[in-house]
Amino acid sequence: MDKQQLIDCQNRIKPFIHNTPILTSRLLDDMVGGSVFFKCENFQRMGAFKMRGAANAIMQLSEAQKQNGVVTHSSGNFAQALSLAAQSLGVKAYIVMPSSAPQVKKNAVKGYGGKVIECEPTLEARERESKHIVDSYGATFIHPSNDDAVILGQGTACMELLESYPDLDFVVTPVGGGGLIAGTALAAHYFGNSCATIGGEPSEVDDAYRSLISGKIETNKTTQTIADGLKTQLGDRNFPIIQQHVQKIIRVTEAEIVAAMRLLWERLKIVCEPSSAVAFAAVLKEKNQFVGKKTGIIISGGNVDLDHLPFGRS
What we know:
Its cofactor is pyridoxal 5'-phosphate. By secondary structure, this protein is α/β, with parallel strands linked by helices.
């Protein structure tokens, strides 16, 4: 994937996405000891960056493929993103969701026009049901993070950030399935001025951190993290990009994630989900690296369960 593909992608999806705001806070700058610029994808359509990749992936399909629809398996933001992108482009979307997914998320997918197909809450069941839909309806499967068109779409958030602040020293993103950090790393490489990409990852699901060390895609034995959007693992399309263009991944504890999330709510006055706070938590954890530097942080989404906020009561 090259520079021109990113430019083409940005131009292609522009009518279907928001150029989200970039927020700053003097207090948070002082805490870090440098300048921090928050790219707020919580204000993106459907509330997360994943709208970018979903739109680009559908727009890259042939007319025949669009006629047969698209399918993905997801219990979270990509389920909503693909549904809304498909609705915006007049394409049918089949969304395979585990039966254990919150009803509010299933309702959101249906609200965006997606057809929900429930399955057992295992990866094997998700993949089996997705294949059944592909075989039965001729729908095109779109992976939430391990797809070239999706990766390019996610990279456009960093492109917009660099258009406003071209001299960033670092850009930091959360790491889950790897689509966002891979796209961001490509954008930083092609459009930044010696801008390094760093990932933030929960210690409880540190497969990407271990993958960079071992040189092969690692998995997690448990997924006990509040950052529910980061429980997935890297894929064969995004991992080589991460290996080549990501400087490091910083692991953070659950308490550090909650503390960072609270700071973002209190100081930026925004609703962001736990997964989004992981990148800022990483900067706070190893802030010596960011002292005196200009750092961009991708706030990946704002789809949070308001009935179960993690902040303790004093």
